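Give me the 3D structure for Putative multiple inositol polyphosphate phosphatase 1-like.
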Amino acid sequence: MYHDHGYQHSITYKQACILGKDVIRHFRKRIDRGNNATDSTAYFVNVEAFVPFLALFGLFKDTEALTSEAINKNRLWRTSKFAGYGSNFGLLLSSCTGESTNYWVTALHNEEKIKLPGCDTSLGCSWDKFLNEYDFLEDCHFFRLCIRFTRRMCRPHNWHLSYIMNNWM
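Predicted structure for Putative multiple inositol polyphosphate phosphatase 1-like (169 residues):
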């Protein structure tokens, strides 16, 4: 799981940026409209999308990469603990007033508050601080990110894939 969907190769978790971009877009829309009403957006994904999404936010990242020679018993990366069946991750946008400086983002993993990298506490951080840490999500270009890999595909399969992705079929 670490090599296929985690931190071993950045391309594996950067592909989840499309989900992160949508979250940022949704939050930004609510802030721009000054909308404080209760609202939710839910994504239901399999573990192959869930784990890269967590990695995209820098969660459960160890200081040293996992290898077969060096397995730290106190490591953070334990998919059996954070990505079991029914695991969930939520980002909450809240505000007491409609001003952008008063919006707050809190992360929850399996219904428990979790500290996001870049935030000072598990209670979360201001929208501005969150955006400063994760602004790269707004620049997500999934096809550009993956183009060098799709070019390696055999030509017939590549055309078929393009047809499917662009709804040409």
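The beta strands are 89-95, 103-109, 112-114, 125-126. Let me know if you want a second pass.
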